[in-house]
Every structure is written in structure tokens, then in C-alpha cells.
């Protein structure tokens, strides 16, 4: 379904690659959690998967289409079939839950109808249904900025669900939520994952969440994949490899600057 | 002196010198107020207020209000799409962005009265050239202000709109407009209020409205009417200000 071939990303103005020569492939039905420190390349990897980030070298294939070579229209089709949720939810402010969820249809309709909010009864019914699926039926008319963090992420999930995606991406979707809410969100994601037979790929900081929910765990460090396997194989040894040593170095560099 | 560095001392000295130089240049001299009585005499001529011309004045005030509203509103309509081209993050091409910014500051640098005087030669006396003068200036001002709002808008929703597969320009429009709308309105109402004062000045050069009446009343020493003109102008400005805050509070 998704395949990275020798994928490298170097941000302009930086000499260190955010991703370097990554080879990965993902199949429908996998629930993948990507671990790694801040700056390890997790977000970059996820954002390459729907073309929000362009590869500097190598290629990301989405169901066979090379994302750096296809035209804008094809890229939009890929994005339409890829639901994505974000750390800061990225909802459109001052719009209601219902209106925000309806924006999930923007990829599949013409912009005139989008701009004037002309949605068919069927589309509206679908939106109500996904809002019900994420448990927000009682908040449907509320402005999104008045919701709690967990509720906002549910709106994000509903918006992505309305796209009827094949691939579901999460860029640190629970990093700004408390542990209890994070677990609720993961439960919901898991339920959606299995009921829709998706390929779900999510960045997460919390190793326990990853090990509990994922069917496959990836660990990145300095832009390279250092672990790729079953959650139970991600041992303490790998944990230290992923997080510790670099963290110590970072702390030291902060102290030495003073 | 924990809050001050040596540099701020220097800034302070330069500031004092600037104030002094400006006072010399503008002949700023409080002792001139010894002729204070002249002003009292002059102002006492304003009273009692002559109410007889009130209906005509109201009619002229309405002209002024219409001028200011139409000029600033057309300015907003034209500035809104332009500001997306003049914002760094939404402009389709870098070169177009720079061109638009320069073009906007060029328009802004021309005072309304110059626009008015030039248009007067083609369109003749009356409110129409005044409306256009206000419109042109406001395209420059609102275009700059709104493009800065666009640049400061949160990028997250734009990213989300791209991720659902919307076209880039539509993603920008749809995610940015709701964010900046209350601030666009408050800028607009402020410019509307300024446009009322501007249309007074344009009245002095024949743009019509209460401004022209004020000017004529002054020139003909009709001070008891001047006071009513000024009162109406004040009421108009305050009313627009209040209405603006009301609309904005409804929108937020």
C-alpha cells in the first residue's frame, strides 16, 4: 500500500538529513506506531506519506503512485484517500463541529460547492454518522474552540473518517492530551482501524501506548530506522537505543552552552 | 537601574533631541496662549446654535456617510483578494508578492486629497470622485493590513485542508478567512471611521457632503451653523465606532 524507497529528506538550511535512505513498506491492515525522539524524523516520515513533505531523494509510493512525480490532481486524490490527524488538531476555528467535519469532503467535490457550503442531504447524513461514531453527537453544533482537547481530536478523526480513507495517518495525535484521554483516542483509532480495514500509521511518544495498540513498531533515530518489528520485540535495549544516549548528549550540550 | 542598559540611555538622549528639534521646527511655544481670549471670542460666536438648517445638514451628513461607507467598502472588496496575493505565505509567486507589496505601498503613499484633486479634473465636482479617492487609498491600507493578518494566521488548518485533498488556493482561503474575519472587520470599521473624517477634507475641495458645508459655513463666517456641523460630524463618528464594536462582538 505504502512504500518508501531510499527516501531522504533534507530541509533547506540544514546539513543533517531529517530522513536518510529509508526503505520501508506497509500493507493494508497494519497498525503501525512510529517511535523516536523529537527531531528523529517521525513527523517528516508521516508527512511524506501524503505528499505534504516532498522527498529530497528517493521516492514514496502510494499504492504504486510515486508521490514526487504525479501531478497535482493525482496528489489530491491520494490525499483524499489518506485521512490525517495532527498534534494540534488543525481544526478550522470559529466553525462548528459539524462544519469542520464536512470539510473532510473538500477533496472530492468542486470548489464552488465547497465555497458556498452546498452539501447534499446524503453528505450531511454521512457527516452526522461519523460524528456519532466518535461520540460527539451532543456537541455537533458547538464551535470547535470551545471543546476540550480530546473532543477536538475526535473532530479531527471524524473529519478524516468522512474522507473514507484507505490510509490513516497520525502526526503525534495524542502528544497534547492527558494520558487518560490519549488512551481513549487510541481505543477509538483501533476500533476504526479494524472496522474499516485501514493502514494506520501513527507517531507517538509513549512507548507503552505503541506496544499496547500497534501490530508493528518502528523506531527512528537521526533519520534512520533502527527498529522495525513486532511490538513485543521492542525490548528495553531498543528503548535505550531509541531514547537514552541521544538524550544525554542533548542535555550535556544545553548545560555546556551556559 | 536594573531595567535600563547603556543603549537605552543613548536612545533616550536621541529622543529628547528629536523632540527639541521638532519643537523648533513647528514653532511650538506655549507662551503664545496669552492671546487665548481670541479663541474664546471666536468660539463664543459658535453659540447659540442655529438649528434652522438642520434638515439640509442631515441630508449632507447622509451624503458623507454614504461616501465614506461606499469608498471604504469597495476598498475592502478589492483589497481582500489582493491581500492573499500580497501575503508571503499565500502568494502564488514570490515575485508577485513583492510586486503587490510595492504596489500597495505606492497607492498608500498618495494622500486621498491628491487622488481627489486629480479625479476632480476628470469627473467634476461632487461626491463621486471623493468615493473613488477613499476607495483607492483604502485598497492600499486594507490590502497591507489584511495581508499581514494572513501572514500571522495559524498554519495548522491550512495544512489540514491540504491533507483532505483541497486545492492549495482553496485550502488557504477556507482556513485563513474564518481565522482573520473578526480582525478584518475591526480594521474595516476603523477605516470607515477614518473615511468619514477624510470625506470632510475632500468636501473642502468640492467633494460635497457635510465637509463642504462646514467649509462654506466657515468661509462665510456662519459660525452658528459651524457648531451644528461639527456636532453632527462627532455624532456620526461615534455612531460608526459603536456600530463597529457591536458588529465585531457579534462576530467573535
Q: Which key features would you list for this structure?
A:
heterodimer, A: 258 residues, alpha/beta, Rossmann fold, six-stranded mixed sheet, four-stranded antiparallel sheet, 10 strands, globular, disordered C terminus, B: 252 residues, mainly alpha, MetI-like fold, 81% helix, ABC-type phosphonate transporter activity (chain B), MetI-like (chain B), membrane (chain B)
Tell me how many strands of chain A there are.
10
* Average residue pLDDT of chain B: 89
Q: What's the story with the biggest beta sheet of chain A?
A: 6 strands, mixed
Largest interface: A-B, 32 and 20 residues
Q: List the helices and strands of chain A in order.
A: EEEHEEHEHHHHEHEHEEH
CATH topology descriptor of chain A: Rossmann fold
Number of continuous helical runs of chain A: 9
**Form type of chain B:** globular
For the sheet with most strands of chain B, the description reads:
none
The CATH architecture of chain A would be 3-Layer(aba) Sandwich
Protein name (chain A): Phosphonate ABC transporter ATP-binding protein
Pfam families (chain A): ABC_tran (PF00005)
Domain ABC transporter (chain A): 2-247
Keywords (chain A): ATP-binding, Cell membrane, Membrane, Nucleotide-binding, Phosphonate transport, Translocase, Transport
Task: Explain what you see.
Chain A: It comes from Exobacillus caeni. Chain A: Residues 2-247 form the ABC transporter domain. Chain A: Keywords: ATP-binding, Cell membrane, Membrane, Nucleotide-binding, Phosphonate transport, Translocase, Transport. The complex is a heterodimer of chains A (258) and B (252). Chain A is α/β, with parallel strands linked by helices. Chain A has one domain: P-loop containing nucleotide triphosphate hydrolases (Rossmann fold, 3-Layer(aba) Sandwich). Chain A contains 9 helices and 10 strands. Chain A has helices at 42-48, 72-80, 97-102, 111-115, 121-133, 149-162, 179-196, 207-213, 236-257; strands at 2-9, 19-26, 31-35, 57-62, 65-66, 82-86, 167-171, 199-203, 216-221, 224-229. In chain A, the strands form 2 sheets. In chain A, strands 6-7-8-3-9-10 form a 6-stranded mixed beta sheet, with helices on both faces. In chain A, a hairpin with a 2-residue loop joins β4 (57-62) and β5. In chain A, α5 packs across α6 (149-162). The longest helix of chain A is centred in the last third of the chain and has 22 residues, at 236-257. Chain A is globular. The model of chain A is unreliable at 246-251 and 253-258 (pLDDT under 50). Chain B is mostly helical. Chain B has one domain: Orthogonal Bundle (MetI-like fold). Helices cover 81% and strands 0% of the residues of chain B. Chain B contains 10 helices and no strands. In chain B, α3 (54-85) runs parallel beside α6. Chain B is globular and about 70 Å long. Chain B starts with 5 loop residues before the first helix and ends with a helix. Classes of the chains: A alpha/beta (258), B mainly alpha (252). Chain A binds chain B through residues 50, 52, 72, 76-80, 82, 84, 86, 88-95, 103-108, 111, 114-115, 156, 159-160, 163, and chain B through 154, 156-157, 159-167, 170-171, 173-175, 178-179, 181.
Amino acid at each position: 500500500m505504502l512504500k518508501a524507497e531510499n527516501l531522504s529528506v533534507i530541509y533547506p538550511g540544514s546539513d543533517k538529513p531529517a530522513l536518510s535512505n529509508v526503505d520501508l513498506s506497509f500493507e493494508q491492515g497494519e497498525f503501525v506506531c512510529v517511535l523516536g525522539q523529537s527531531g528523529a524524523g517521525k513527523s517528516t516520515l508521516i508527512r511524506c506519506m501524503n505528499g505534504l513533505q516532498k522527498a529530497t531523494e528517493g521516492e514514496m509510493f502510494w499504492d504504486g503512485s510515486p508521490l514526487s512525480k504525479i501531478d497535482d490532481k493525482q496528489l489530491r486524490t491520494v490525499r483524499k484517500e489518506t485521512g490525517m490527524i495532527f498534534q494540534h488538531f488543525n481544526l478550522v476555528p470559529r466553525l462548528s463541529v459539524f462544519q469542520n467535519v464536512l470539510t473532510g469532503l473538500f477533496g472530492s467535490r468542486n470548489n464552488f460547492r465547497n465555497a458556498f457550503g452546498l452539501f447534499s442531504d446524503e453528505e450531511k447524513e454521512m457527516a452526522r454518522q461519523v460524528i456519532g461514531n466518535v461520540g460527539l453527537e451532543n456537541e455537533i453544533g458547538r464551535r470547535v474552540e470551545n471543546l476540550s482537547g480530546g473532543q477536538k481530536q475526535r473532530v479531527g478523526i471524524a473529519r478524516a473518517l468522512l474522507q473514507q480513507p484507505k490510509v490513516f495517518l497520525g502526526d503525534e495525535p495524542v502528544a497534547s492530551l492527558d494520558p487518560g484521554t490519549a488512551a481513549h483516542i487510541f481505543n477509538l483509532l483501533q476500533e476504526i482501524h479494524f472496522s474499516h480495514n485501514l493502514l494506520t500509521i501513527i507517531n507517538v511518544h509513549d512507548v507503552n501506548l505503541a506496544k499496547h495498540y500497534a501490530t508493528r513498531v518502528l523506531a527512528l533515530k537521526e533519520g534512520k530506522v533502527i527498529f522495525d518489528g513486532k511490538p513485543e520485540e521492542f525490548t528495553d535495549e531498543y528503548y535505550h537505543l531509541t531514547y537514552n544516549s541521544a538524550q544525554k548528549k542533548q542535555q550535556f550540550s544545553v548545560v555546556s552552552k551556559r | 537601574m536594573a531595567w535600563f542598559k547603556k543603549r537605552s540611555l543613548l536612545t533616550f538622549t536621541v529622543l529628547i533631541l528629536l523632540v527639541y528639534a521638532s519643537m523648533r521646527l513647528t514653532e511650538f511655544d506655549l507662551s503664545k496662549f496669552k492671546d487665548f481670549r481670541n479663541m474664546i471670542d471666536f468660539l463664543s460666536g459658535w453659540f447659540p446654535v442655529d438649528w434652522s438648517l438642520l434638515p439640509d445638514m442631515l441630508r449632507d451628513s447622509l451624503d458623507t456617510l454614504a461616501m465614506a461607507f461606499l469608498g471604504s467598502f469597495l476598498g475592502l472588496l478589492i483589497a481582500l483578494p489582493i491581500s492573499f496575493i500580497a501575503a508571503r505565505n499565500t502568494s502564488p509567486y514570490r515575485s508577485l508578492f513583492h510586486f503587490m507589496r510595492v504596489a500597495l505601498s505606492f497607492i498608500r503613499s498618495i494622500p486621498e486629497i491628491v487622488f481627489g484633486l486629480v479625479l476632480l479634473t476628470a469627473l467634476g465636482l461632487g461626491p463621486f470622485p471623493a468615493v473613488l479617492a477613499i476607495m483607492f487609498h483604502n485598497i492600499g491600507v486594507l490590502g497591507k493590513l489584511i495581508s499581514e493578518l494572513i501572514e500571522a494566521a495559524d498554519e495548522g488548518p491550512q495544512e489540514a485542508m491540504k491533507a483532505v485533498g483541497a486545492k492549495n488556493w482553496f485550502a488557504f482561503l477556507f482556513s485563513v478567512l474564518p481565522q482573520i474575519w473578526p480582525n478584518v472587520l475591526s480594521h474595516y470599521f476603523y477605516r470607515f471611521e477614518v473615511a468619514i473624517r477624510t470625506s470632510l477634507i475632500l468636501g473642502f475641495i468640492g467633494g460635497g457632503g457635510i465637509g463642504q458645508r462646514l467649509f462654506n459655513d466657515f468661509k462665510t463666517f456662519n459660525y452658528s451653523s459651524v457648531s451644528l456641523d461639527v456636532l453632527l460630524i462627532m455624532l456620526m463618528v461615534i455612531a460608526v465606532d459603536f456600530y463597529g464594536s457591536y458588529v465585531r462582538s457579534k462576530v467573535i
